[in-house]
Amino acid sequence: MIFKFPFSSSDKPSKPTDSEPANSETPDSKTPDSVVRSSETPVPTHTEDTPLPLTRQDIEEGIDILIVDDDPIVLTGLQRLLQKRGYRVTTAGDVPTALQKLCLEPSVIICDWVLPGELSGIDICRHIKQDVQLSTTAFLMMTSHTDIANRVEVLEAGADDLLFKPVDTAELIARVNAGMRLHQLTQALKSQTRRLEAELAEAAAYVASLLPADKTASAGSASSVDSPTAITSRFISSQALGGDCFDHYWLDPDYLVVYLLDVSGHGLGAALLSTSVLNVLRSQSLPGVNFYRPETVLKGLNEAFQMTDQNEKYFTIWYGVYNRVTRELSYASAGHPPAVLVSPATPHAAPRLSPLRTAGLPIGMLPEVNYQWQRCQVAEGGRLYIFSDGIYEIQPANPEPQTVSPQSDFSPYSIGPFANRSIAPLENHPTESSVLPQLGLDGFINLLTHLESYRQLNVDNIIHYVSDFGGDHFDDDLSLLEIAF
Known about the structure:
Layout: E1 4-5, H1 56-61, E2 65-68, H2 72-83, E3 89-92, H3 95-101, E4 108-112, H4 121-130, E5 138-143, H5 148-156, E6 161-164, E7 167-168, H6 169-210, E8 215-216, E9 230-236, E10 244-252, E11 255-263, H7 268-283, H8 294-304, E12 315-323, E13 328-334, E14 339-343, E15 352-356, E16 374-377, E17 383-387, E18 403-404, E19 411-412, E20 422-423, E21 434-435, H9 440-453, H10 459-470, E22 478-484
């Protein structure tokens, strides 16, 4: 049986045009609100002329369909039709009522384009699609406008489908069923996404639980320790599960190991690889490797973790061994940002920052790679900063472009209360007013220099100013170690 619903009085065209012929089924002037039906179908008579009221269960469980139209005949006809097919249906005759009933979180909304007042069905559609709770609701727009421009406007506003007046019953039911399926599938996808996010959050918490706590990393033996070494760390996970990991422990009462690694990519695969490397280094289970020699450790890791066996993932690492007796630091790196050794000021010299890095490919990229090592003396009161690239590969929170000047090594760049903080010009930006797209390694090292000049260099101040530069959310994990000798 085919039912046809009329134009509402506000949506009815004033007269037919050449491109849009007159509809022979449009109600005549004597019965403008009557329901037009197929000529071969007798008008059914129903005793239940009043739509079924909402029950407490409807309110508690939500509504399947919300119908918005200023024509009460259309509202009643559509509501009864859909209720008889088992749907929980409510109606609204104007925009304010419709907005109030959105709290019922309907699965499908059938809305007339033209409504009384300043707002229209387009406005309701935009409001719904911008609401996080309602964005999965299927929106069906009823209209008598059939031209392409109007269709495009409706779809660009976020509508999922259109119903052209007079509405055919079979088409209405089919589109409502499709809208319900779309809503259910989208809800299931959102639910699955929430579960995955929760699982990733649990995985991130597990990875964080494996990281060592801050401590004064003395040998812990009965023998006296002339130069106890305090280690402070900060780890801020990104919005996605990342692959940063670090550790520090004593190989024996005199030798301290400290390292930081960063696995390529994000997600569970990166986290699994980082924890695997962490366990291998903690257990010292690399065969034939002298863990007192940084270059042999990196070579052993490269042989054990080739990216062809690790789902095409590789990692960078900075690995150092500190001898507390000789105050000598041996180190090697594999594609990792340099550590920064801060030598304290003396009566004859200012504080000095020295980048510590050796040449070497990231671990896992190629087999049979040899790694170099270096060593340096650590002055009493010196500090070593080891970090991942997530601490400086950040975009400015302020979208306004910043500039650097080639006339000097430093340029004013305001962050926080340090209005005169300076950063070095970027490489490959030789002209004045070059845009600074991110903090960068040079900018980060100069931030350390600036903080040290104010005697305010510590992990918390570093995190404060980096966060002030890029905001509270990071695209990559941020790891930072401070070793005070």
